[in-house]
Structures are given as structure tokens and as C-alpha cells.
């Protein structure tokens, strides 16, 4: 089986036919499936979509059970947690629906952890970290684009001279570089390359 465009989060099952891993969709399995929008809904109360998955949490006054359901709890109602709570040995503790969130100073609301600035996120070569609420993702560096080459997705250099996305003067030559470009005034002209006279 050959899939010309590849299957980003899935496997090739037949000529250009991808079988997506759970949590992903699209012709090349490159899109995150929003499980929170599915019918029937996967969570009893509230749902938070994550990259390739989802997290359930409960309304205030309820606590999340191991099977994902929400059970009424008088103690949780008194604590007033943002995302539901759990009771451990008689102690009530507020929960955050993602590992990328942490309990704030008040012990009831969740605040985002910026994985990009704390160094918790590791992005591969030519990719930069983008923080999201409760998570992060890796995006190609500026001057690079995601392309399917040699049976996997890579960030490859954009040739600004070919794509005409450079800002060189009409009287300059465009020279492509890794992740960028340079402008050099043609013979008989002088200047920065962006302005030639």
C-alpha cells in the first residue's frame, strides 16, 4: 500500500487510504478529532479537547469518578472547585483536567503551565514550541514549512526566491538561505538589496 501524501497520525492501508489512530481524522490523519463534539458525548458534564484525546471534568458540587462519570458530592460543593474535585482519605482536593494545568494559589482554580518557557516541552529540530491552555504543540520555525518527505513529515526550508515571498528590490538578486533569504543588488546598482539605486 502506498499513500503519496502519507498518514501523519495513522497507517497506510491501501492506495492513498489511511487508517487513523484514535483521536485523529482527515484524509491523511493530520487533524485532531474533537471528541467533545461527538454524539453521544464522551463526558457526562464537561469536556476539554486535547491533541489526539480529551479530558472529562465535572461541574462544581460533583466529583469525577474513575469511570469518567460525575457523582454528587456535598463536600465538593462546599470547596467550590473550578473543574470538580476528588476526595482522598476524607480530604477534598480540587482537580485540573490536564497535566499542563496546575492549581492556582487559591487551591480551587487552574492556571496554565507554559511548557515552552519552563523547558518542559522539547520540540525537534527546526520546530518551535507554541503554548496553549493546558498543553503545547510544536510548529515549524519561521522560514520553514511542514512537508511530507521520505515517508515522514519534516520542516523543510521555504525557498522565498521561488515562492516570490521575498522583499528584494527589482534591481536585486534573491539568494535563498536556510530559513531565510538574502538580497544582493545587481551589477551597476548599490544599496541594501531591498533598496537598490
Automatic annotation (TrEMBL):
Which PROSITE patterns does the annotation name?
A: ASX_HYDROXYL, EGF_2, EGF_3, EGF_CA
Q: Can you supply a Gene Ontology BP term from the record?
A: cell adhesion
Specify the EGF-like domain's residue ranges. Answer: 32-71, 112-150, 157-195
Locations listed in the record: Secreted, Extracellular space, Extracellular matrix
Keyword Signal attributed: yes
**SMART domains per the record?**
EGF, EGF_CA
The molecular function terms in GO held by this entry are:
calcium ion binding
InterPro entries, per database record: EGF, EGF-like_Ca-bd_dom, EGF-type_Asp/Asn_hydroxyl_site, EGF_Ca-bd_CS, Growth_fac_rcpt_cys_sf, Nephronectin_domain, NOTCH1_EGF-like
Entry keyword set:
Calcium, Cell adhesion, Developmental protein, Differentiation, Disulfide bond, EGF-like domain, Extracellular matrix, Glycoprotein, Repeat, Secreted, Signal
Checking Gene3D superfamilies in the record gives:
Laminin
Q: Which family does it belong to?
A: Belongs to the nephronectin family.
Record's protein name: EGFL6 protein
Gene this protein is translated from: Egfl6_1
Amino acid at each position: 500500500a502506498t499513500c503519496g501524501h502519507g498518514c501523519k497520525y495513522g497507517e497506510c492501508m491501501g492506495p492513498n487510504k489511511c487508517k487513523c489512530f484514535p483521536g485523529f481524522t482527515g484524509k491523511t490523519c493530520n487533524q485532531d478529532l474533537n471528541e467533545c463534539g461527538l454524539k453521544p458525548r464522551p463526558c457526562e458534564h464537561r469536556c476539554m479537547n486535547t491533541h489526539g484525546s480529551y479530558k472529562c471534568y465535572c461541574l462544581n458540587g460533583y466529583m469525577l469518578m474513575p469511570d469518567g462519570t460525575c457523582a454528587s458530592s456535598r463536600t465538593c460543593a462546599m470547596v467550590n472547585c473550578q473543574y470538580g474535585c476528588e476526595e482522598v482519605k476524607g480530604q477534598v482536593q480540587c482537580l485540573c483536567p490536564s497535566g499542563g494545568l496546575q492549581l492556582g494559589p487559591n487551591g480551587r482554580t487552574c492556571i496554565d503551565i507554559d511548557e515552552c518557557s519552563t523547558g518542559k516541552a522539547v520540540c525537534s529540530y527546526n520546530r518551535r514550541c507554541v503554548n496553549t491552555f493546558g498543553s503545547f504543540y510544536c510548529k515549524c520555525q519561521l522560514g520553514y514549512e511542514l512537508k511530507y518527505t521520505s515517508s515522514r513529515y519534516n520542516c523543510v526550508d521555504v525557498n522565498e526566491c521561488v515562492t516570490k515571498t521575498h522583499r528584494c528590490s527589482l534591481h536585486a538578486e534573491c539568494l535563498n538561505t536556510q530559513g531565510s533569504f538574502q538580497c544582493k543588488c545587481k551589477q551597476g546598482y548599490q544599496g541594501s538589496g531591498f533598496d537598490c539605486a
